Amino acid sequence: MEFHLLSIYVLFCLALRGSNASLPAEVYWKSMLPNTSMPKALQDLLQPEFKNGISTSTGDGGSNENRYGTAYWPELRKSNKVFIPSKTTIFFLYDDLLPHKIMTLNFTKSNKTSNFLPRKIAETIPFSSNMLPQILKYFSIKPSSKEAQFAKRTIEDCEAPNIRGENKYCATTLESLVDFVITKFGKKVQALANEAEKENREQEYTILKGIKMIGDNQIVCHKQRYAYAVFYCHTINATKAYTIPLEGVDGSKAKAIAVCHADTSAWNPKHIAFQILKVKPGGPPVCHFLNCDTIVWVPN
Description:
alpha+beta, globular, 8 helices, eight-stranded antiparallel beta sheet, about 20% strand, 13 strands
């Protein structure tokens, strides 16, 4: 029954797109946040999909393997393996957040990603670890598949208790994402994401003048790898968010979002940030760039 409704909704959405009309989720955004521009990273997730299954994307944006923003507490609870990224800069010390500093970055945008479901459909689908078999069956996901592992991990992380200083929420629709932000900040907010002229190209970038601290009270929402768009949103004490203007060696410009954590004492001692930066929990402030489908919300 739900799949039949979803199929009808997809056809309805395509008809709306053809007529330049707004999708229901867009209408909700405009009614609730009339003065807030929707980042392209969210706009791209409103396109209807025909596939009744989980995305097979392995790009930076959708992968839970490289979850730099949400994995600092339980990431190694079942394994002692530490995933060390390539030469791309992810973590860096606050003291390195200076003009003329050079960092290697790749603004990765996946060609395949899971989109938002309409709210009325998403609310009929369970989102609970004890209902995982039914969820996998609904989306035709093999229990032994990698996609099933990602789905299981996403739900477990959403159900896990908060770490000290964290307040989190998992949004399974665009509407619930908007509602959560409004409960924290009200309707006068900005929604920010990375912007880059060149995507999917690793190169050296120079930090330009114009670094801006956009807030010390923000909500960061990370897109998870799941059958449809799910965002892990959290607020963390003692953090500041920055917009960083950049210029690549090819002359292309970008504006990256980074978050700096002043208090890392509650982080997992084996977190990859400590491995890369050679520091310990509770040491100097640790900063990290955000993925291209991560959204940062700050009050105006």
